[in-house]
Amino acid sequence: MTSLPVQPPPGSPPRTPFDEFPSTRSVLRVVAVVLAVLVVVAIVRLLWQPLSWIVIASFLAVALSGPVNLLHRHMRRGLAVAVVYLSLLLIPIGVAAAILPPLVSQGVDFVNNLPKYSQDLRNEVQKNPKLEKLNKKFGITDQLSKLAANAPSRIGEAATVVRDLGGAIVSSIFAGLTIFVLSIFMVARGRDWIEGLLRLRGGRQADAAAVALERIGNAVGNYIAGAAVQATLAAVTAFIVLTALGVPFAGALAVLVGLFDLLPLVGATIAAVFVGIVTVFNDFPAATIIWAIFAIAYQQFENYVIQPQIQKRAVELEPFIVLVSVLFGAELFGVIGAILAIPFAASVQIAVQEWWRFRSAEDLVVVHEARHEHPPDPPPGEPDAAPA
After folding, report:
1. Integer CA distances (angstroms), 212 to 119, 244, 254, 356, in order
2. What does each C-alpha distance from 183 to 53, 55, 79, 121, 340 come to in angstroms?
3. Which of 129, 222, 279, 339 is the most exposed place for a label (fewest CB within 10 A)?
4. How far apart are CA 146 and CA 361, in angstroms?
5. Which 3 state secondary structure label does DSSP give 357?
6. Which residues neighbour 346 within 8 Å (Cβ) at sequence distance 6 or greater?
7. Phi and psi of 15, rounded to 5°?
8. Ramachandran region of residue 20, left (φ > 0), alpha (ψ -120 to 50) or beta?
9. pLDDT, tens digit (0-9, with 9 covering 90-100), for 313-356
10. Reported pTM
């Protein structure tokens, strides 16, 4: 059934072909919107690095606002901020002091002992006819012996590479200090800024935004605090097992396990493989087998007991969303982005939930006002009870 064309009302001027085209004002409005979007994209592209620092500083400020508020109950807020940030500043210093000296000395010893390791490998290969046949065919031990003999002379080249990396290290330190200072300002004055912006808006929109920001702050703080507790447990248990196995530099290796455990999905596995390689040179195969069994068992305990508790205190996310957010975060901000990807995804999910709740409530108000009815009161319950 075809619809009949709409006839113009009586007395109206006749329609022309130009009436089918949009008005000049509509065209100018579209052009202005497109130009504004292009300008914003260009500005973001130019200011991408400082904007990324602000994003990281924001998450750091949210994570540290909990300890600051806790200490603020017993002291002035400025002093609480100073105590928390000085403690945070001492953490990388302590980690570097625990890791760097043993790593350097162990690395030098390993390079100096490479000829001995190569000879031991040659002796083991000669005892096995099959390995000896492969060795004669491909010359594996000869290549390893040549590499081991030249390794000590390449330590100077490694020092040159480290010296060339000095510029990148200085840039990283500058970025870290900038993020550190930005987060201090956000912790000290961030709540006043947010309250001021909400007062400018007012009304139901301001109330909904305040609820969303409160939920986001709780979710991010709980997640980061839980991740820190998880990394600490991983480091402590690794230190106990490595000490019992007699692995050298157990403290430094435990610190590395804790740091890698902060990386979602793959961090614990990378740390376990790295420590497993170290155990090979200590007491193979007993220490390596025991460490492998412990690492597998602990990762299962962490995945099914510890992480669900952290997710429950923050916000429940689909595994697919977790994986995608980690990939995007790592691509945009590197290791820091991978660590902050999950709380960022949780923040987006909470924002979408609160926006959807607000729009539903607004639509309900409009419907009841159209019917000249009083809108019903919202059902009781916490904001966290909203469907995911």
Report:
1. 65, 48, 38, 11
2. 10, 10, 15, 53, 15
3. 129
4. 75
5. helix
6. 216, 219, 220, 223, 314, 315, 317
7. -75, 145
8. alpha
9. 666 777 778 788 888 888 877 777 888 888 888 888 888 888 89
10. 0.65
